[in-house]
Amino acid sequence: MATDRASNGMMRRAVTLLAIMSSAIFIAFFSWQGASAQHSSQQAPRPMADKPMADKSDAIEFTEEFMNNEENFELGKAIWKKRCQFCHGKRAYPGKAPKLKPKRYKPEFVYKRVTNGFKGMPGWKHEFNQQERMAVTAFIMHRRFSP
Ligand code: HEC
After folding, report:
1. Dihedrals φ, ψ of 112, to 5°?
2. How many angstroms separate the CA atoms of 93 and 70, rounded?
3. Distance 88 CA to ligand 1 centre (A)
4. pLDDT tens digits, 4-49
5. Which of 80, 87, 111, 119 to mutate to test the pocket of ligand 1 (most atoms within 8 A of CB)?
6. Which listed residue, of 7, 95, 119, 140, carries a Cα 20 to 30 Å from 45's Cα?
7. What is the distance between the alpha carbons of residues 74 and 3, in angstroms, rounded to a whole number?
8. Which residue has the least CA distance to atom 32 on ligand 1?
9. Is residue 131 within 8 Å of residue 60, measured between CB atoms?
10. Which of 141, 130, 144 is nearest to 100 (CA)?
Protein backbone atom coordinates (compact mmCIF):
# COMPACT_ATOMS: atom_id res chain seq x y z
CA MET A 1 0.00 0.00 0.00
CA ALA A 2 2.79 2.37 0.95
CA THR A 3 4.60 1.78 -2.34
CA ASP A 4 1.34 2.26 -4.18
CA ARG A 5 0.83 5.68 -2.63
CA ALA A 6 4.41 6.62 -3.34
CA SER A 7 4.24 5.70 -6.99
CA ASN A 8 0.87 7.38 -7.20
CA GLY A 9 2.41 10.58 -5.91
CA MET A 10 5.28 10.27 -8.35
CA MET A 11 2.84 9.67 -11.14
CA ARG A 12 0.92 12.77 -10.25
CA ARG A 13 4.09 14.84 -10.08
CA ALA A 14 5.16 13.53 -13.45
CA VAL A 15 1.81 14.40 -14.96
CA THR A 16 1.92 17.89 -13.47
CA LEU A 17 5.44 18.41 -14.76
CA LEU A 18 4.42 17.21 -18.20
CA ALA A 19 1.45 19.57 -18.21
CA ILE A 20 3.63 22.53 -17.25
CA MET A 21 6.21 21.65 -19.85
CA SER A 22 3.76 21.22 -22.66
CA SER A 23 1.95 24.45 -21.85
CA ALA A 24 5.30 26.22 -21.80
CA ILE A 25 6.08 24.81 -25.23
CA PHE A 26 2.59 25.72 -26.39
CA ILE A 27 2.97 29.32 -25.23
CA ALA A 28 6.48 29.60 -26.61
CA PHE A 29 5.38 28.27 -29.97
CA PHE A 30 2.45 30.61 -30.32
CA SER A 31 4.29 33.70 -29.21
CA TRP A 32 7.01 32.80 -31.70
CA GLN A 33 4.44 32.35 -34.43
CA GLY A 34 2.81 35.65 -33.53
CA ALA A 35 6.17 37.39 -33.65
CA SER A 36 7.11 35.95 -36.99
CA ALA A 37 3.68 36.70 -38.44
CA GLN A 38 4.10 40.31 -37.34
CA HIS A 39 7.57 40.35 -38.74
CA SER A 40 6.53 39.12 -42.15
CA SER A 41 3.61 41.53 -42.38
CA GLN A 42 5.96 44.41 -41.67
CA GLN A 43 8.26 43.29 -44.41
CA ALA A 44 5.57 42.42 -46.89
CA PRO A 45 7.18 42.16 -50.32
CA ARG A 46 6.73 45.60 -51.80
CA PRO A 47 9.62 46.31 -54.10
CA MET A 48 8.58 49.86 -54.87
CA ALA A 49 7.11 50.47 -51.44
CA ASP A 50 4.62 53.27 -51.59
CA LYS A 51 4.98 54.08 -47.92
CA PRO A 52 7.83 56.53 -47.66
CA MET A 53 10.68 55.22 -45.61
CA ALA A 54 12.27 57.19 -42.84
CA ASP A 55 14.10 60.17 -44.20
CA LYS A 56 17.09 60.32 -41.97
CA SER A 57 19.69 61.58 -44.40
CA ASP A 58 22.48 60.62 -42.04
CA ALA A 59 21.34 57.01 -42.31
CA ILE A 60 21.77 57.10 -46.07
CA GLU A 61 24.78 55.42 -47.48
CA PHE A 62 25.62 55.06 -51.13
CA THR A 63 27.67 51.93 -51.11
CA GLU A 64 29.43 50.75 -54.22
CA GLU A 65 27.11 47.79 -54.20
CA PHE A 66 24.07 50.03 -54.21
CA MET A 67 25.45 52.25 -56.97
CA ASN A 68 26.23 49.30 -59.22
CA ASN A 69 23.06 47.38 -58.55
CA GLU A 70 21.25 46.70 -61.80
CA GLU A 71 17.77 46.90 -60.26
CA ASN A 72 18.53 50.34 -58.87
CA PHE A 73 19.79 51.38 -62.27
CA GLU A 74 16.59 50.24 -63.97
CA LEU A 75 14.35 51.79 -61.34
CA GLY A 76 16.30 55.05 -61.55
CA LYS A 77 16.11 55.02 -65.31
CA ALA A 78 12.33 54.60 -65.24
CA ILE A 79 12.02 57.53 -62.82
CA TRP A 80 14.33 59.61 -64.97
CA LYS A 81 12.28 58.99 -68.08
CA LYS A 82 9.04 59.70 -66.34
CA ARG A 83 9.94 62.74 -64.29
CA CYS A 84 13.37 64.20 -65.07
CA GLN A 85 14.03 63.87 -68.77
CA PHE A 86 11.38 66.42 -69.59
CA CYS A 87 13.61 69.11 -68.07
CA HIS A 88 17.10 67.59 -68.09
CA GLY A 89 17.00 65.28 -71.07
CA LYS A 90 18.90 65.81 -74.30
CA ARG A 91 15.68 66.72 -76.08
CA ALA A 92 14.50 69.07 -73.36
CA TYR A 93 13.78 72.66 -74.29
CA PRO A 94 17.12 74.47 -74.13
CA GLY A 95 17.63 76.38 -70.93
CA LYS A 96 14.90 74.52 -69.11
CA ALA A 97 17.37 72.90 -66.76
CA PRO A 98 21.14 72.55 -66.63
CA LYS A 99 22.81 69.65 -68.36
CA LEU A 100 23.80 67.27 -65.62
CA LYS A 101 27.49 66.66 -65.05
CA PRO A 102 27.62 63.54 -62.93
CA LYS A 103 31.42 63.45 -62.87
CA ARG A 104 31.34 66.62 -60.83
CA TYR A 105 28.82 65.36 -58.32
CA LYS A 106 28.84 63.24 -55.26
CA PRO A 107 25.81 60.99 -54.84
CA GLU A 108 24.90 62.84 -51.65
CA PHE A 109 24.59 66.08 -53.62
CA VAL A 110 22.34 64.56 -56.27
CA TYR A 111 20.23 62.91 -53.59
CA LYS A 112 19.84 66.22 -51.76
CA ARG A 113 18.73 68.05 -54.91
CA VAL A 114 16.31 65.28 -55.81
CA THR A 115 14.90 65.22 -52.30
CA ASN A 116 14.56 68.90 -51.52
CA GLY A 117 14.85 70.59 -54.90
CA PHE A 118 16.66 73.89 -55.37
CA LYS A 119 15.40 77.06 -57.07
CA GLY A 120 13.86 75.90 -60.38
CA MET A 121 14.43 72.27 -59.52
CA PRO A 122 11.44 70.69 -57.81
CA GLY A 123 11.88 68.40 -54.80
CA TRP A 124 10.57 64.87 -55.03
CA LYS A 125 10.27 63.56 -51.51
CA HIS A 126 6.49 63.56 -51.70
CA GLU A 127 6.40 61.57 -54.87
CA PHE A 128 9.35 59.23 -54.56
CA ASN A 129 10.37 57.38 -51.45
CA GLN A 130 13.92 57.21 -50.19
CA GLN A 131 14.75 54.09 -52.14
CA GLU A 132 13.45 55.60 -55.36
CA ARG A 133 15.36 58.85 -54.87
CA MET A 134 18.47 56.83 -54.13
CA ALA A 135 17.88 54.78 -57.27
CA VAL A 136 17.60 57.81 -59.54
CA THR A 137 20.80 59.08 -57.93
CA ALA A 138 22.51 55.79 -58.72
CA PHE A 139 21.26 56.05 -62.29
CA ILE A 140 22.63 59.57 -62.80
CA MET A 141 25.98 58.65 -61.27
CA HIS A 142 26.27 55.45 -63.27
CA ARG A 143 28.78 55.23 -66.10
CA ARG A 144 25.95 54.18 -68.41
CA PHE A 145 23.91 57.26 -67.60
CA SER A 146 22.79 59.19 -70.63
CA PRO A 147 20.37 62.09 -70.42
C1 HEC B 1 10.68 71.42 -63.99
C2 HEC B 1 11.97 71.06 -64.56
C3 HEC B 1 12.78 70.04 -63.77
C4 HEC B 1 12.48 68.74 -63.50
C5 HEC B 1 11.20 67.99 -63.84
C6 HEC B 1 13.64 68.18 -62.82
N7 HEC B 1 14.60 69.14 -62.67
FE8 HEC B 1 16.43 68.87 -61.89
N9 HEC B 1 16.82 70.85 -62.06
C10 HEC B 1 15.99 71.76 -62.69
C11 HEC B 1 16.61 73.09 -62.65
C12 HEC B 1 16.03 74.37 -63.21
C13 HEC B 1 17.83 72.92 -61.96
C14 HEC B 1 18.87 73.99 -61.61
C15 HEC B 1 18.54 74.56 -60.24
C16 HEC B 1 19.58 75.61 -59.87
O17 HEC B 1 20.67 75.20 -59.43
O18 HEC B 1 19.28 76.77 -60.04
C19 HEC B 1 17.93 71.51 -61.64
C20 HEC B 1 19.00 70.92 -60.98
C21 HEC B 1 19.19 69.57 -60.81
C22 HEC B 1 20.39 69.00 -60.26
C23 HEC B 1 21.64 69.75 -59.83
C24 HEC B 1 22.46 70.06 -61.05
C25 HEC B 1 23.65 70.94 -60.76
O26 HEC B 1 24.66 70.77 -61.49
O27 HEC B 1 23.60 71.79 -59.87
C28 HEC B 1 20.18 67.63 -60.26
C29 HEC B 1 21.16 66.57 -59.79
C30 HEC B 1 18.86 67.40 -60.78
N31 HEC B 1 18.29 68.61 -61.11
C32 HEC B 1 18.28 66.15 -60.92
C33 HEC B 1 16.96 65.95 -61.29
C34 HEC B 1 16.30 64.68 -61.22
C35 HEC B 1 16.95 63.38 -60.80
C36 HEC B 1 15.03 64.88 -61.61
C37 HEC B 1 13.91 63.86 -61.70
C38 HEC B 1 13.55 63.21 -60.45
C39 HEC B 1 14.89 66.29 -61.94
N40 HEC B 1 16.08 66.90 -61.72
C41 HEC B 1 13.73 66.87 -62.41
C42 HEC B 1 14.77 71.50 -63.28
C43 HEC B 1 14.11 70.30 -63.23
Report:
1. -65, -45
2. 30
3. 7
4. 666 677 667 766 655 656 666 555 555 655 554 444 445 544 455 4
5. 87
6. 140
7. 79
8. 114
9. no
10. 141
